[in-house]
Amino acid sequence: MKRVLVLGFMLIFAFPLFCETPEELIEQTAKEILTDYSKPVVTAFGTAMGTDFINRRSHGILGLDVGVKLVWVIIPEEAKTTTYEIDTIWFGGTSFTDTVFTGNTIFGDTSAVEGDPLHIKGLGFPGVFFAVPQANIGLIQGMNASVRWCPFKFEETSGQIFGVGLNYATGDFLPAPILSLKFIMGCGYQHMSFGDIASATTINGAILAKVGISLPMSPVSLSPFAGIGMEKTSINFKYDYENIEINETIGGENKLRGIFGLDVDFLLFDIDLSYNVGKMNSVGLSIGVGIR
User: Fold this and answer.
1) R_g (Cα) of the chain, nearest Å
2) Which of 14, 32, 149, 275 could form a disulfide with 10 if both were Cys (CB 3.0 to 4.6 A apart)?
3) What integer pLDDT is reported at residue 16 of this predicted model?
């Protein structure tokens, strides 16, 4: 079961059948094309990490909910290829000078784009999947803390993901028998390491409005929500390419996102669905158990 969860939550290092792993492709990538080739995976990582990390539930002191966050990041077609402009590059033992061409990014096709002199190939991903356990605990005066952590071992390489967050939920602005209105503001920091090849960080925040709908005597309550999120992501790649040490930090293009969704509470169980609109769109599903 542990191995299944590990393979499920891996983002940039998960691989499909009959395909090279991302770290293998990156280790074959020269410094001159690394940024253009890898930037989409940095953006996808930040998009996944920021989806549903800010807790939308407000607990009393030591109230708790635990669950798993599942995210599907949709890779747009424009992120699968890019235009490379190279002065001079050694690639595969051959020198190329004053070269401009269209080629795959890491999410591109597993076959090279026609006319690409470097024959760059990608993973052929239509999207990327992310899953990680998370716990949220109530503090004082509307404050809540979130934490996620998961160690893993993949292809004999160890790594871990760790994140902490803090949010504040206002009181009810619409006190009524059936309806309620709360505003939630939160921020978070997350870090992932994978062996010696990659180390990633993302900082994110969000402001949300949440409307609660609770019918009398009903065990089910619905809470549609909407808001805006902000984030900044970077990944440091460190490896050797043809006896040249590469040590490059690449920033993602994910800056702002629109957030829309629905929270469903049934007794102690929580099921949440969200859709995030940004540089890359994502769908989030959260399943958990809460103690108010």
Assistant:
1) 21
2) 14
3) 33
Cα dihedral: 185, 191, 192, 195 (round 10) = 180
DSSP state string for 160-191: EEEEEEEEEE---SS--SSEEEEEEEEEEEEE
- 117 in helix, strand or coil? coil
**Distance in angstroms (rounded) separating the CA atoms of residues 1 and 5:** 6
Three-class SS of 20-38? CCHHHHHHCCCHHHHHHHH
Amino acid at 87: D
Nearest CA to 238 out of 1, 27, 91 is that of: 27
Q: Which residues of 73-82 are buried (b: 16+ CB within 10 A; e: fewer)?
A: bebeeebbbb
Structure tokens belonging to residue 194: 């994978």
Considering all CA atoms of the chain, what is the largest pairwise distance in Å, rounded to the nearest integer? Answer: 74
CA dihedral 81, 82, 87, 92 (to 10 degrees): -20
**Could you say which residues of the chain have pLDDT below 50?**
1-19
Burial grade of 168 (CB within 10 A; 0-12, 13-18, 19 or more): middle
What is the reported pLDDT for 66? 92
Amino acid identity for residue 277 in this structure: V
pLDDT in tens, 231-247: 999 999 999 888 889 99
Give the contacts of 188 (CB within 8 A, at least 6 positions apart): 50, 53, 54, 146, 163, 164, 165, 166, 203, 204, 205
